[in-house]
Amino acid sequence: MSTRTPTAPALQTNKQGFTRWFKTKGWRHLIALAATAFSIFPLLYVLSAALNPTGTMAGASTLFTEFGLGNFEELFANQERPFGRWFVNTLVIGTITSVATVFLGALAAYAFSRMRFSGRRVGLLTLLLLQMFPQLLTVVAIFLLLNFIGDIIPALGLGSQLGLIMVYLGGALGVNTYLMYGFFNTVPVSLDESARIDGASHVQVFFKIIMPLVTPILAVVGLLVFISISSEFVIASVVLTDPDSQTLAVGLYSYVAQQRSENWGVFAAGAVLAAIPVMALFLFLQRYITSGLTAGGVKG
Amino acid sequence: MLHPMVEIEEKPSAAPVRPGRERPGKKGHGPDSLGGILAKIILLGITDAVAAFVLFQLVLSGEWLIFVISLATTLVINWIYLRRGGLPAKYLAPGVIFLMIFQVFVMIFSTYIAFTNYGDGHNSTKSDAIASIQLSASERVPDSPQFATSVLEKNGSYFLLVTTPEGEARLGGAETPLETVTPSTTGPTGAATGVDGYTTLDFTALLANQQAITTLTVPLSDNPEDGSLKTADGSTSYVYTPKLKFDAAADTFTDTTTGVVYSDGGRGSFVAEDGTALNTGWKVNVGLDNFVRAFTDQNLQGPLLKVIAWTFTFAILSVATTFALGLFLAITFNRADLKGQKIYRILMILPYAFPAFLSGLVWSGLLNPEFGFINNALLGGAAIPWLTDPVLAKISVLVVNLWLGYPYMFLVCTGALQSLPEEVDEAARMDGAGVFKIFTAIKLPLLLVSLAPLLISSFAFNFNNFNVIYMLTGGGPRFDGTTFDIGSTDILITMVYKIAFGTGAGRDYGLASALAIIIFLIVAAVSALSFKKTKALEDLN
Predict the structure, then answer these.
(1) Residues A167, B132 contacting (CB under 8 angstroms)
(2) What is the CA radius of gyration of chain A?
(3) For residue B516, what are the domain limits?
């Protein structure tokens, strides 16, 4: 869409120069400002509500007029809704799930990338197909299955974080495996061949040759899994019933499920604290996501 | 996150597959090291130990079918890892096991549940249902003595501690019939008030758990015919005997006061001749009943059709609006010499980084009709029903989803635009095409070809975009003329969730699973169709 007229912002002093500047670039700045305002204004609102000591939704209607940490204190003082626990639970569940997902996915990607066996193509296609049906569609069956498992092994049943992690690992193969498979293909096969000639076993090739070379994709997949698990509500809300074992998504929702306007300030404080790590991770990752996109991602 | 973001990087999978040299089972690699063998033995040992424990528990609970399946799985795992060769299976097995249980099996299980009446009132076997009816449908024995009572709690279950008129302390819970205990504390009247290992509920705790306590039924003995104890206030309880008498030979219940006979109606409940059924039933297969009910029941048909229509509208409009805005902004900023581009970019994609479940909740505060920021501060105290008017609520949902989704489309479109070859642009300009013409005739078709798969998966994602709807409006405002808790902004997946786990009408797993199957079918059909279409599109170019 850009007209490629060379512009000279230095000429802004006279009126004609300004019009030209506006026509080529100025309007873009106007749109940028509008879009930016649209994007950040809800975030500023929640930050202001978190810092507003009034604590109610009505009180939060004036942006950044009063400051206080009362909401944060109340957030951590509430015994029935242990925010600190939720935070730790989310970290633990997210970390274990993402590490295990990366490991299971890498194992599978190694097999798909380095070995030829019957059913390989079908296997890859099946993984692509299965990801069309997200796990949340089967939430009822997952609930009943965990209910049954709980009768036999209570440590893995409803209410158990370990059970929830197992459910999440059901989605470990899928998109992630595909991502890693593509990346594994970019590592030259000659590397593992020479290692093998030197007497390395397939396990040694996997852990000592391939894994170090694909660390970037492992990190990206791990972080993406972490981000999505920390936002997961549906399955977590059904499995984790005890407030002490809940994650941030389930716990923070319970704050406002009944009395949205009364608990608003405390909820906002919790939201700010819950969002900061995820947003930091995301902004850190953003470079990889966009570069994978713009560079075409195809490195091999 | 909002979109399955990883799809952005789907491209690597398109990388040319190198012909591997691995020939499993032949000498392609060196021998396993000692450490490797040890690790393998230890890991397999742990797996087998866990499996043995599970198998033992399964035998104890008499789940033979599952026992056989688990045993077979354990044997297969051992076979995979103990035999020589078969390398791919060794690497694939761990992930595939989880995939089989928590992705494939649960899909099959959902289908099975969809054909049953599983749900509140139908969640167990027939004999459980009979026992439960005998306990629940009871009435107070006339002139029976009253028992001084304390409510005790242990591990989240409640128990009644009663003192008989003879002064004997007895304790029992819903699962455990009354038995004599030695109280650790007694009240001023000599009634037992506490037992070691249990917590006695005080008045506030009683009030807080009122419902659980008033519905607590403690059987007097193992035989339900003997009756049971119930309390209305947490301080006294009475003996109740079954109002319905079970005749095991005839397989019927008879109401002891009216004489009405309830017999097994074949649909998982006891039904009287006039069609009234007893509340507690059991799980049976009902064939296509759930599907038929969804589309013919007056209470459900209208709302369901509206929900399906809105699900499509929501998914299509979400993709369209986010793509349009994202593309527009991508074009606007697609100039290297624009100052402050980096800052704009980071600020603009912040909504995408914000956890999706929080976004809906935060916006519900902004849009709240009474106390919300938009009505109160921006519009000076207007009372616009953003979330409670059917049409406005739908628009609000779309706007919030636009806020959440356009940064993703912006990133994707920017990438796609930058990968377009410059020469095309120049050649078209040489031929005299204007800016607009170049865009619509050349750039947009090229963009659509490369972005079509992403748009389809964005559609599939929004089709099941639970978080935005549930957190922002909860599906409301509710429809009139139905007893189900379904509303104008509900999409299919939120409806499934509410029918299965909602607080309104009882839980109905069968119906919820049937609706989930309908989502399966729609998503499968739409994806299959559109991927075919995009293939055709690619061939054309």
Answers:
(1) no
(2) 25
(3) 296-540
- What would be the CATH architecture of the domain defined by A82-257? Orthogonal Bundle (1.10)
pLDDT in tens, B399-456: 999 999 999 899 888 888 888 887 887 888 888 888 888 888 888 888 888 888 788 8
Taking an 8 Å cut-off on Cβ atoms, the answer to whether B6 and A186 are in contact is no
- By C-alpha distance, which of A177, A175, A157, A176 is closest to A167? A157
Question: Number of A:B CB contacts under 8 A?
Answer: 375
B49: in domain: no
The CATH number of whichever domain residue B208 belongs to comes to 2.40.430.10
Encoding tokens for residue A2?
């850009």
**Tell me, what DSSP letter sits at residue B194?**
E
Closest Cα in chain B, distance from residue A251 (Å): 11
- Asked whether the beta carbons of residue B18 and residue A185 sit closer than 8 angstroms, the reply is yes
Interface-testing mutation among A133, A166, A185, with chain B (most B C-beta atoms within 10 A): A133
User: Predicted confidence band at B28 (pLDDT cuts at 50, 70, 90)?
Assistant: low
DSSP conformational letter for B282: -
Contact between B278 and B254 under an 8 Å Cβ cutoff? The reply is: no
Residue B148 near residue B162, CB atoms below 8 Å: yes
The answer to whether the Cβ–Cβ distance between A28 and B332 falls below 8 Å is yes
Is residue B76 domain-resident?
Answer: no
Which residues in chain A land under pLDDT 50? 1-12, 292-300
Q: Are residues B253 and B317 in the same domain?
A: no
- Per the structure, the count of domains in chain B is 2
Mutate which: B1, B2, B7, B13, vs A, most A CBs within 10 A: B13
Cβ-contact A46, A252 below 8 angstroms: no
User: Residue B92: inside a domain, yes or no?
Assistant: no
Q: Does residue B313 sit in the same domain as residue B259?
A: no
DSSP type of residue A225: H
Average pLDDT, chain A: 84
Closest chain A C-alpha to B469 CA, distance in angstroms: 12
Q: Considering the domain boundaries, does residue B224 fall inside one?
A: yes
Amino acid making up residue B310 = W
- Closest approach of A18 to chain B, Cα-based (Å): 15
Q: Contacts of residue B471 in chain A, CB cutoff 8 Å?
A: 233, 253
How many angstroms separate the Cα of B276 from the Cα of each of B246, B262, B272?
A: 17, 9, 5
Four-residue CA torsion sign, A79, A83, A89, A92: negative
The string of pLDDT tens digits covering residues B464-476 is 999 999 999 988 7
B189 vs B191: CA distance, rounded Å: 5
pLDDT at B109 over 80: yes
